[in-house]
Amino acid sequence: MTTISAFGDADGALTVGGVPIDRLAHRVGSTPFFAYDRRLILERVALLRGLLPDRLSIGYAIKANPMPAVVHLLASSVDALDVASAHEMRVALDTGAEPARVSFAGPGKTDSELEQAVAAGVTIEVESFGETRRTVRAGEVVGVRPRVAIRVNPDFAVRGSGMRMGGGPQQFGVDAEQVPDLMREADAAGVELLGFHVFAGSQNLSADLLAQAQARTVDLVLALSVDAPQPVRYVNLGGGFGVPYFPQDKALDIEAVAANLTDLVEGRLTPALPESSFVVELGRYLVAEAGVYVTRVVDRKVSRGSVYLVVDGGMHHQLAASGNLGQVIRRNYPVAVATAVSAEPEETVTVVGCLCTPLDLLGDRVELPRADVGDLVAIFHAGAYGLTASPTAFLGHPAPIEVLV
Amino acid sequence: MTTISAFGDADGALTVGGVPIDRLAHRVGSTPFFAYDRRLILERVALLRGLLPDRLSIGYAIKANPMPAVVHLLASSVDALDVASAHEMRVALDTGAEPARVSFAGPGKTDSELEQAVAAGVTIEVESFGETRRTVRAGEVVGVRPRVAIRVNPDFAVRGSGMRMGGGPQQFGVDAEQVPDLMREADAAGVELLGFHVFAGSQNLSADLLAQAQARTVDLVLALSVDAPQPVRYVNLGGGFGVPYFPQDKALDIEAVAANLTDLVEGRLTPALPESSFVVELGRYLVAEAGVYVTRVVDRKVSRGSVYLVVDGGMHHQLAASGNLGQVIRRNYPVAVATAVSAEPEETVTVVGCLCTPLDLLGDRVELPRADVGDLVAIFHAGAYGLTASPTAFLGHPAPIEVLV
Question: Would you call A120 exposed, middle or buried from its count of C-beta atoms within 10 A (0-12, 13-18, 19+)?
């Protein structure tokens, strides 16, 4: 299983950051916990650095995993940070990241958030005419000229995305055809108008479809740039690089994606927009596969012929793994007996969390080696949209610890 | 709309606990917030008191809404509290409730939780042989005789439940056919064996199906009682009373349910088990309809012909309303412009939350009166499985306030 081999193992036990999982559990002091592997995150960044053109910056969308240590690690290894709330902005700035390297996107920014963003000097990716006007007012309140990019809702949709966030009517961004009017208005209102953000969808595993989307994004950016009242200095091409969650998923052909981006950045964007920076914004792709959720077997029971492992974690920490975060069809995330990752499967078991609801299902009829009370069970792909995307207060269990190893 | 009429209105604005919503928003001091109506909760209890037999206790499953003020209110108006974690147990005991009136259910109770429960003197509803043995050990550690009831996985399934939690193989409870063996073992180990808990499913809107399930539950309890080594003093019949969330849902015929329960308790249970208490355990039914989630419009935008209201709340507070908590098909919870509940609808709008994800959808193409930035939008049915069942840390927005009015 590639998932386990990426982390490594020692004496039959999973390792994270080189530490055997039972020792790590002792170090953490309680289960369940999330462990993120520093090496795997940095290897992913290095992979991208080796493939992407120098001129293309890598941004980290910290919503994927806002653990401060993870954000610090990425702040020092990628070029930009994207935030989606005032709290995330503080986490980003606390790393020492230059405000000019921080972008703030998302619909529904409040007046207070806009004022904080203006005061911080980050790039505000405005999502509507109304938000642009409120940003202008925030600049007046704070007495600082707002730095603005326009988030564009493209006039095309991307196929193959796990979540579509562009094309047709959307709550995200300004419809492409309205952008020239908005640029004129924003320029006249005195904001610093840096450029554009186009984000059309997330979790795409098709290099071809991503390449098509990126090419159309470049078409759109170049067309919009003609009407730009100020030199274009910022182009955020979005991201949407998917990761394989399930056995039938094929990993994204990142070489093909990078080759296409190289052609677009070097062949089209740089000549046309020489003053601009270009950024791909990635969240899940940088961290999802570097995380594991570790939970301990509390009960092993047989009910009418079915074996259940009841663990001390559950959907309150890993909602996505339970199939309740946007999935239409529930599939199992990769799961392993963490202290016996080299052992052959010997039984079919259902792994359930400790919540008193049938929704709390972590592994439905999975093949595993024998596990008993006290053993550790690992759920993979827990590095992104895990803890913070889960209902941690549900049923009042203690919050899990996170460690970056 | 019955939802709004239950709360009431004044000068065209929704009221909660008799307080106009805009005044309540000022009192709370920030949006979004949850407001629970004390009167509606007490009216629901009074309705049940008037219909159910005196001999049948009402229990509140505090997982539905563990806000301490709500739990206090119900602790003083119902007969028993059910908890699903050590934290919920503390909330229950903090109300001053007698430990004997508190039951602790749920798979995956840890050794520490079992020791806390034994020390507290609450009734532990054991879910397996293993958990029973660990409860015996907890009693030895604490030096107190455990008070135990056996949660039974029935040998039948209940049709019509939103979530099935009994019948076939289950992580919940002990298979009915194994209960006699477990009773002998538990009795021999010296625990106080009080009786049984049978909970077959939740969110059932059919009085007929509930009546069938209750009759079969009574059959099962009476059959198991024959083998009980100690007098049966506790029978928890479960609950599963549903509430109507959507326009096509028909409210549960509570009179029919109560009449059936009266027949069962007076005609069958009391004569057979004269020393026993009997309890129905309700969560959602007591509180769901008494709560409203109030959020403010931050942006109003038109994208390619569609009107979007972007509000400062979202799925991070009301996951169920976004359709991401176990629903197979997403439907809109009732939604209203809270400051204009008497006004006629005049447009079709989509209400989205402030999170940067298309999952954050609160009202998909709903008919509403005109709402602008600053107006309050209310999402109903927010009294149960709302705040604590939602990923509050997602994207790092501030936690909402809860008020009981």
Answer: buried
Chain A nearest-CA residue for B329: A328
Q: What is the ipTM of this complex?
A: 0.94
Please list every residue in chain A whose beta carbon sits closer than 8 Å to the beta carbon of residue B165. 357-358
What amino acid occupies position B226? V
| Structural domain that includes position B385 | 3-36+289-404
- Where among B256, B282, B308 does a domain terminate? B282
As given in the structure block, the two tokens for residue A266 are 């070097």
Report how far residue B229's alpha carbon sits from residue B150's, in angstroms, rounded to the nearest whole number. Answer: 13
Q: Which amino acid is at B67?
A: M
Q: Kindly state whether residue A63 falls inside one of the protein's structural domains.
A: no
B168 contacts A304? CB cut-off 8 A: yes
Q: Are residues B113 and B258 in the same domain?
A: yes
Nearest by Cα to B174 from B212, B208, B137, B224:
B224
Statement to judge: residues A241 and A326 lie in one domain: no
Neighbours of A286 (CB within 10 A): 31
Looking up residue A123, the CATH number of its domain turns out to be 3.20.20.10
pLDDT tens-place string over residues B367-386: 999 999 999 999 999 999 99
Helix-then-strand count for chain B, H and E: 12, 22
B280, B59 in Cβ contact below 8 A?
yes
Is 0.90 surpassed by the pTM of this model? Answer: yes
**Residue-by-residue DSSP string for A131-192:** HHHHHHHHHHHHTSPPEEEEEEE-SS--TTEEEE-SSSS-SSSEEGGGHHHHHHHHHHTT-E
Q: Is residue A64 part of a domain?
A: no
Quick one: DSSP state of residue B265? I
What's B289's DSSP letter? Answer: G
Closest CA to A396 of B392, B213, B63, B313: B63
- A397 in any annotated domain: yes
Which has the closest alpha carbon to B298: B256, B354, B225, B358?
Answer: B354
Residue B99 β-bridge partners: none
Structure tokens at B194: 């009080």
Residues B208 and B113 in one domain: yes
Q: Best of A312, A349, A394 to disrupt the B interface by mutation (most B CBs within 10 Å)?
A: A394
Residues A128-168 have pLDDT tens digits of 999 999 999 999 999 999 999 999 999 888 777 777 777 88
Residue whose C-alpha is closest to residue A49's, from A21, A69, A25, A79: A79
Give the length of chain B. Answer: 405
Backbone dihedral angles phi then psi of residue A355, each to the nearest 5 degrees? -80, 150
Chain B hits for A349, Cβ within 8 Å: none
Please tell me whether residues A294 and A275 are part of one structural domain: no
Chain B residues whose beta carbon lies within 8 Å of the beta carbon of residue A175 = 303-304
Summarised one tens digit per residue, pLDDT across range B7-61 is: 999 999 999 999 999 999 999 999 999 999 999 999 999 999 999 999 999 999 9
Interatomic CA distance for residues A335 and A332, integer angstroms: 8
Judged by CB atoms closer than 8 Å, whether chains meet at A171 and B357 is answered as no
| Distance, CA of A4 to CA of B68 (rounded, Å) | 43
